[in-house]
Amino acid sequence: MRQKVVKKPVDQAGWERQESGRIRVSSLLTGLDLFVVEMEKKWGADRLRLLVPDDLREKFDRQRFLLRKAQHEGTVEDIERECARMRNAFVALDKAATAAGADQIKPEVWEATISDGRVVALVRDERDVQLVANRIERGVLVWSLADVLRLIEDQSFVNCVKETFPGTKIKAFTSSGAGMFDDLDEQEL
Fold this sequence. Notes:
- This protein is mainly alpha-helical.
- It has two domains: 14-99, no CATH class; 109-181, no CATH class.
- Helices cover 51% and strands 7% of the residues.
- The protein contains six helices and three strands, in the order αααββαβαα.
- The protein has a three-stranded mixed sheet with strand order 1-2-3.
- β2 (119-123), α4 and β3 form a beta-alpha-beta unit.
- Mean pLDDT is 83; it is low at 8-12.
């Protein structure tokens, strides 16, 4: 009588339970993240893959899938290989977009100083908020036009004054602060 052999599943992601593996993978992914940030400064967040032909975009997306798969199922060596390939995939997109004459991202930024001395940078699109925040020094408050519009919508008294007296300039605005942000979802903050 033949005995059935039960194979134990191979634990490919064992690196997560080994300190040296976690440190190595963290280092690899951090290095890749820094490289991606540089690409995003140049092309915008998730924009570069849209600037290249479909076949190259498909290869890029496949490589991103392979990297994620390696993170979940692979060894440290698999992750190292896929991080290097992901970096190469970004370089290929960068070269293709440059060769095609694609415009690099250049967000328009308006800066002003508020009464406490901090600098506020105002950008047109919400997608530019992180791009600008990555480029400028810490401590600068980056707001999108959509952020400002949400605040304006909530100022019914001020809006009424502005409608009644066109051209009115706001010199100071005080609020009790109680309940001012109560209706915001925590994930929106």
